[in-house]
């Protein structure tokens, strides 16, 4: 078991999502930053989609109750193992009784903890991903536990990755959304020239941007939305739906982020900047 | 055979949006549901389909890059050749609602705004069969069509931070049930003690798009009983097959 001595700000168990229930309104969920998670799981020779902890802004304090191998990825949160600093993208052996804790957020917003073999536990509707009310809890609380299989010895093929870092990228690649054509020249000018600021309203459901691009009066009949769908409200505000986002919506869908761009945005926090690049 | 023109467009790298004519009509919904049924039978492992009103959002599940032209051919092939009526079993569900002001916290105000007595409001709300145009937004949230004009009024000026699970509300042309505790701006006129979404069930939402809903007025005592039954997993819901 991995025990939460302290839960941190918002820590959840996530795999790559819950598929096949969007027709009854269940969001897909899953890790916000797939790019970072795939790398950690690859290093541990797990399946890409094996369940990991997603750690937001302020990390937890975690006690390992059996030996295993871990890999950290995503945001840099000054992690320590038994008070010794450790790095992202390295396979690290942990013993029973070891304590992993996190410190200052240096860059990015969401850190990941992958464990050899992936975290276990019950799948609900085919997925480990926490999403209330599908799962009983929306995130971990102090004293919660999450199971993993003990592993005493493992020889990793690659023990470390040096990789292009997507944490500080400004540009996100977008496609035209279904209602792209409602945008006026004035909208387009702002949309693709401005650098936008992430507002306080940002979470696993959606990221709202602070700057507005001008009003409109188009309404659409409620229709499907996806992670990465950029909605334009009548007031001119941009809302980018994320992994726990609603499955349908009534605002025009003006842009659609590429998959990789969702990972880039997932690492941004209140006050960070983003700009759109049409591909 | 099919005369209904479809618009098929890419929706990002992993989805395709298929749109029917821009009207909210039962005949269009029926064509959509027949398409979803036939398409799912053929290609279930490759796609996840989300129908809502006049569109189907098709989400590509395979790790292989989506080929839009291939997808378009699949859609047109199924739509053109699918001449069968809907094969899904569809039901009329009678859902109990307690309109007591303990739950219907806006009932008095709503009735007054609509110029109706409370009894008249309840009578009108319960005499209608509402069609489910889609389930979305939140787990188990039904988009219901068919609210009489006499019951249509604007949503509340200031949304509430907390609306109780099961609350039955009116807002614009819509009526519906809040499937979970959530913030919301609808005018709350009652409460349904039966959860429309339960993740512990094999079929977490017993209602499907294309089904119909009718509300039945129950007393507070009956509401409390049905609520206790629901909490332990017993739902006794009256349903009638629609296409019988």
UniProtKB/TrEMBL annotation, chain A:
GO terms for molecular function: ATP binding; hydrolase activity. Gene3D superfamilies: Cyclophilin-like. Coiled coil: none annotated. It holds the Pfam family CT_A_B. InterPro entries: CT_A_B, Cyclophilin-like_dom_sf, PxpC. Keywords: ATP-binding, Hydrolase, Nucleotide-binding. Residues 23-279 form the Carboxyltransferase domain. This is Biotin-dependent carboxylase-like uncharacterized protein. It comes from Flagellimonas meridianipacifica.
From TrEMBL, chain B:
Keywords: ATP-binding, Hydrolase, Nucleotide-binding. Residues 6-207 form the Carboxyltransferase domain. It comes from the Bacteria. GO terms for molecular function: ATP binding; hydrolase activity. Signal peptide: none annotated. SMART domains: AHS1. It holds the Pfam family CT_C_D. This is KipI family sensor histidine kinase inhibitor. It comes from Flagellimonas meridianipacifica.
């Amino acid at each position: 078991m991995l025990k939460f001595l302290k839960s941190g700000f918002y820590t959840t168990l996530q795999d790559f999502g819950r598929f096949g229930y969007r027709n009854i309104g269940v969001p897909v969920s899953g890790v916000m930053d797939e790019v970072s998670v795939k790398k950690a799981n690859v290093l541990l020779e797990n399946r890409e989609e094996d369940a990991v902890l997603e750690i937001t802004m302020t990390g937890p304090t975690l006690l390992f109750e059996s030996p295993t191998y871990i890999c950290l990825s995503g945001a840099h949160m000054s992690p320590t193992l038994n008070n010794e600093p450790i790095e992202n993208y390295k396979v690290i052996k942990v013993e029973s009784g070891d304590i992993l804790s996190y410190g200052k957020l240096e860059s990015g917003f969401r850190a990941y903890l992958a464990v050899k073999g992936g975290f276990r536990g019950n799948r609900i509707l085919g997925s480990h991903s926490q999403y209330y009310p599908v799962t009983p809890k929306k995130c971990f609380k102090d004293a919660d536990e999450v199971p993993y299989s003990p592993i005493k010895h493992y020889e990793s093929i690659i023990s470390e990755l040096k990789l292009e870092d997507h944490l500080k990228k400004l540009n996100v690649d977008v496609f035209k959304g279904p209602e792209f054509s409602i945008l006026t020249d004035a909208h387009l000018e702002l949309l693709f020239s401005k650098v936008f600021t992430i507002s306080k309203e940002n979470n696993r459901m959606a990221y709202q941007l602070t700057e507005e691009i001008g009003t409109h009066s188009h309404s659409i009949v409620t229709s499907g939305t996806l992670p990465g769908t950029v909605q334009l409200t009548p007031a001119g505000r941009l809302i980018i739906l994320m992994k726990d986002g609603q499955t349908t919506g009534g605002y025009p869908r003006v842009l659609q982020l590429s998959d990789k761009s969702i990972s880039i945005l997932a690492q941004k926090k209140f006050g960070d900047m983003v700009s759109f690049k049409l591909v | 055979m099919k005369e209904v023109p479809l618009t098929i467009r890419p929706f990002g790298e992993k989805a395709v949006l298929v749109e029917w004519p821009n009207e909210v009509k039962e005949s269009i919904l029926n064509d959509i549901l027949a398409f979803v049924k036939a398409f799912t039978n053929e290609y279930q492992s490759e796609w996840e389909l989300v129908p809502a009103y006049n569109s189907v959002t098709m989400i590509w599940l395979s790790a292989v890059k989506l080929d839009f032209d291939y997808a378009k051919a699949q859609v047109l092939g199924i739509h053109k050749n699918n001449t069968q009526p809907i094969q899904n079993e569809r039901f009329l569900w009678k859902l109990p609602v307690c309109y007591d002001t303990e739950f219907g916290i806006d009932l008095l105000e709503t009735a007054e705004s609509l110029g109706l007595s409370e009894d008249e409001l309840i009578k009108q709300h319960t005499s209608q069969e509402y069609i489910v145009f889609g389930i979305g937004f939140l787990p188990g949230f039904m988009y219901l069509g068919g609210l009489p004009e006499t019951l249509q009024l604007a949503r509340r000026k200031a949304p509430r931070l907390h609306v109780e699970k099961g609350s039955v509300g009116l807002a614009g042309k819509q009526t519906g049930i809040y499937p979970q505790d959530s913030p919301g701006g609808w005018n709350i006129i009652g409460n349904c003690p039966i959860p429309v979404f339960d993740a512990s069930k094999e079929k977490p939402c017993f209602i499907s798009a294309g089904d119909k809903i009718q509300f039945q007025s129950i007393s507070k005592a009956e509401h409390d009983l049905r609520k206790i039954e629901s909490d332990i997993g017993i739902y006794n819901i009256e349903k009638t097959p629609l296409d019988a």
